[in-house]
Specification:
Elements: H1 16-25, H2 32-39, H3 46-61, E1 64-74, H4 103-115, E2 120-125, H5 132-148, E3 152-156, H6 162-171, E4 175-177, H7 184-190, H8 196-208, E5 212-214, E6 217-219, H9 225-237, E7 242-247, H10 264-277, E8 282-285, H11 289-293, H12 297-300, E9 306-308, H13 320-330, E10 333-334
Parallel strand pairs: 1-2, 1-9, 1-10, 2-3, 3-4, 4-5, 6-7, 7-8, 8-9
Helix pairs in contact: 1-3, 2-9, 2-10, 3-10, 4-5, 5-6, 6-8, 9-10
Bound molecules: iron/sulfur cluster.
Length: 355
């Protein structure tokens, strides 16, 4: 039994975090120093911080949760050297490696997304940027997906030229994902084969082509809290619509496999910081949710309003039923009910990419 005197808990009203939330709801932007204070908050204040974040989340999104479904449409074989990535040439992780999937496989993924109540089907390839063959495959499949399913399509194809971005917009892609991954200062520590500016340039090309932006990052790569804040503010400046927040899964065989210093409470502070810095944007708890938030993962949805349902690119997520139960138990609800155009069943377990 612990007989030490109880520490004073923050009161539920008029705490510094509640004041921050009030200012954010009044239209003020957080400064970098205020965002840093959130990441440095004592663990005892995490519930108060989440309550403040939830006021903002609720103002913009109510109790809704958006679901996304990932399809790893081309795996491994990537010439880039991103240190966190199991698909890089520098990774010896044991993953499936294959070229871009066939048309029927991509359509089966869309079917799985619809069956899992996802709003958005994310087609992801491992590449510095798309080859002509990969561009043509996406241009062919996207109109078919949009015709058969009530799904938005997000394409994650690597670096894009303005011409490639225009072609994606023309074939019906709603949104492009291209993560900044971390702050500009730290970027060169995790990748040397392309630059942070290359990534920013791709986001500008996507915006100029008229598509929405999905861009976020990975926390837990050895960066400082300041790097995380810099990324959150850069995403705010770019007016990114959707922000996936990944927590590094240090996959054996990747250069960053030794990075294991995240705690569930720190992950919750990160999510609260992203919500308060980007109040009206979709914040998604992405890869590493189950691994790092563990028994606290439901709490993350008080700050975030979106998750992936199903598996990640090369690692498994929890079963969709567990996600639906978590959302129901919170009293939240999945926003999109999707008309499934075909009755053909798809076993998404076939899409699990871990070898
Ligand atoms: S460019 Fe993408 S697929 Fe290639 S190593 Fe980097 S993160 Fe992985």
């Amino acid at each position: 039994m612990n007989n030490s005197p109880a520490q004073a808990l923050p009161t539920s009203t008029d705490t510094p975090w509640q004041s921050l939330a009030t200012r954010v709801l009044e239209g003020e932007q957080l400064t970098a120093d205020e965002a840093l204070q959130i990441l440095a908050a004592p663990d005892l204040e995490v519930l108060d911080l989440l309550q403040a974040a939830f006021r903002v989340r609720h103002h913009y999104f109510g109790r809704s949760v958006q679901l996304y479904f990932l399809m790893n449409a081309k795996s491994g074989l990537c010439p880039e050297d991103c240190g966190y990535c199991s698909q890089s040439k520098d990774s010896s992780a044991e993953i499936s490696k294959y070229n871009i999937l066939r048309r029927d496989e991509l359509m089966a993924g869309a079917q799985a997304a619809a069956e899992r109540k996802a709003k958005t089907y994310c087609i992801v390839i491992s590449a510095r940027g798309p080859s002509e063959r990969e561009m043509a495959a996406v241009e062919e499949i996207v109109p078919e997906i949009k015709k058969q399913f009530d799904l938005d399509v997000c394409a994650c194809l690597g670096l894009l030229t303005p011409e490639q971005a225009d072609r994606l917009a023309a074939c019906g892609v709603n949104r492009v994902n291209h993560n900044l991954n971390t702050g500009e200062e730290f970027y060169r520590e995790v990748c040397t084969t392309h630059t942070y500016q290359d990534r920013v340039d791709t986001l500008h090309a996507v915006r100029d082509a008229g598509m929405e932006l999905c861009s976020g990052g990975i926390v837990g790569m050895g960066e400082s809290p300041r790097d995380v804040v810099d990324m959150a503010i850069q995403l705010r400046d770019l007016k990114v619509e959707s922000i996936p927040v990944n927590f590094l899964n240090p996959i054996e065989g990747t250069p960053l496999s030794g990075q294991k210093d995240l705690t569930p409470n720190y992950c919750l502070k990160v999510l609260a910081m992203f919500r308060l810095v980007n109040p009206e944007r979709e914040i998604r708890i992405a890869g590493g949710r189950e691994l790092h938030l563990r028994s606290l993962q439901a709490l993350g949805l008080y700050a975030a309003n979106s998750i992936f349902v199903g598996d990640y690119l090369t690692t498994q997520g929890q079963l969709p039923e567990a996600d639906y139960n978590m959302i129901n138990d919170l009293g939240f609800e999945v926003t999109q009910s999707v008309e499934v155009a075909s009755s053909k069943s798809c076993d998404a377990q076939q899409q699990k990419q871990d070898g």
